[in-house]
Known about the structure:
Blueprint (H helix, E strand, L loop, with lengths): L1 H71 L10 H10 L1 H35 L1 H16 L2 H11 L3 H26 L3 H9 L4 H39 L8 H10 L3 H30 L9
Helix pairs in contact: 2-10, 3-4, 3-6, 3-8, 3-9, 4-6, 5-6, 5-8, 6-8, 8-9, 8-10, 9-10
Amino acid sequence: MSSSRNTENGGLLSADINAxxxxxxxxxxxxxTSRVVAENTARIGAAAWPAIVAPLMVAVVLLLLWExxxxxxxxxxxxxxxxxxxxxxxxxxxxxxxxxxxxxxGITALALLAxxxxxxxxxxxxxxxxxxxxxxxxxxxxLQVTPIVAIAPLIVIWVDNSLIxxxxxxxxxxxxxxxxxxxxxxxxxxPGLRDLFALHHASRWQVLWRLRVPSALPAFFSGxxxxxxxxxxxxxxxxxxxxxxxxxxxxxYQILQAGLQLNIPRLFxxxxxxxxxxxxxxxxxxxxxxxxxxxxxxxxxx
Length: 302
């Protein structure tokens, strides 16, 4: 009886020791994981600062140099205004320029959305059916190499609604990078994983959704960054060609009007808003791509 109780107590003690050891190892692994995550976050944050501060310092130096040259050589305002004059004009004309900015950004957003939906849909069709790709891809290339300035007047004439016409012009410019990069990503799959899916008799839908789509995300977001800038350029060029004016005039219209009135500071202010919008949109698309890929893809971890 005494021997059985000792055996039972020894078993309980051994179980307690094992449980304690397991908890200790789990806490150790949790601590190591937390420390690694904290170190990676700090490293990424430290690496991100130079990418922000360095361009800003270059911009400040260039603006100061611009200001000094204009003032020293007394360059007329109607030729090249100083950055301080441009900033003053931007603040004074902000209500007018802000309305034009929102109009241009609205066209850009609609064009980017349309190009993304249409481009991704066509890319899926191209990957699933080789004949469809051979039949339609040359026309996508044709749209890419045709100058939008040449076809924008025709689109404006054919489409009565100016908003739809401008959006269509910008969509044509932004479409090709989405198609090209998404098709490339959908085809760039690991041969081993492809053979594994075939071994398990996966359907074409399963291969597309579980293998091709995750593999295509880095290339897709790369194309999306390019298409964002092209959509803005397409919107501005379409506004130039269409000559849309009035309360719904975009920044291109303000540039045209400022040029005709020799209001060069307003022209530079509108141009600055276009450039700043392009930089912000590119940074936003980059951030979205990093947030979507950072947990599993190496390209978004550095």
